[in-house]
Here is the input.
Amino acid sequence: MSLVEMKVPVIGESVNEVTLSQWLKEEGDYVELDEPICEFESDKATLEFPAEAAGVLKYVAAEGDDLEIGALVATIDTSAAAPDGGGDKKADSAPVPEADDTPTGPPEPEGNAAGHPSPAAAKIMREKNLEEVKGTGRGGRITKEDAMRAEAKSAPAAPAQAPPAEKKAEQPAAPVYTPRTDFSRDTSRKKMSRMRRTIADRLVSAKNEAAMLTTFNEVDMSAIFALRKKYQERFVEKYGIKLGFMSLFAKACAKVLLEMPDVNAIIDDKELIYHDYADISIAISTPNGLVVPPVKNVESLSFAEVEQAIKALAVKARNGNLTLEEMSGGTFTITNGGIFGSMMSTPILNKPQSAILGMHTIQQRPVAVDGEVKIRPMMYLALSYDHRVIDGSTSVTFLVKVKQLLEDPTTLLLDL
Here is the structure.
């Protein structure tokens, strides 16, 4: 027999452990060279693990196991012959004999226990003066149930009460509450995915290690609505994609980030690293959790290029096809809880970044405009920031500048 050991390969510099999320081949199957046999889930992506030789597969690790890089996953017996006609072939297993439930030995005869009460039955018999009770327990023993049945039979019937001669007023009977017991009380337990555990660890780390504060403002979306309504058809006709809110917000943030480098900086030990570019991470909700792949050099991209980059990342994220490189980096993050109906929130930092912008749902609200009350589409904005890097005045100024660009997008388009 010649065995090839299948071990967890080196996936990336920052990946030290993976989870075996799913076997793609059954144990005992004949697998071909480079045929995927299982899937690994890392902190950032899901990867297929191909067979390194042809032969019969034997499991070593199980689904859900956490494995370090280099850990043994399975073995492949290369001396096994390929099955005729191709396809998977499993080793036949010997049938398991069915258990014989027929009782062995004769039934237990009545012995010294016959007619003797159990301690509970004896207590009832003493209290109720019961003498002759038939035992139905093992060996003729008198059980507690036997004593209770005998007590019920010997209890005299309650005498009928004569109705009172006079009754002043009949009192209604108090309602008897009977609690329902037909509700489900079932629970289930499921192991957290590798991505969910990583997200949890990073969020707790960001909360505990950063001096995080949040400042709020609101933006009147009327001008953006008018811009999109006027140019949407021509934009789609030329670029094949709709002009969304996210590209406008990303471009506005990128412009202000380059004007205010503190908001675009990160802490590295006792030093600050400043960036002369804006790589903006876009929060994308997937079935496995929230991911934040960055759109790089947003300051240098057109609105159409930003929209196309966001769409491509969103599709890959929801299909689980993001690479480690596509998940890495980012100098600032934008998250849009408004698509789920959130009116206000305090987004948490995406380490090691120093700031994150939260968008929220757009609502028609009355606002004062030039001394008059008008109904406008309004959105609350939230900027969470690390106070170790960004002062309060800087955070407020950043958010005001973003607000001004969004309320007058012509200045954004003309780079004013």
About this structure: The radius of gyration is 36 Å.
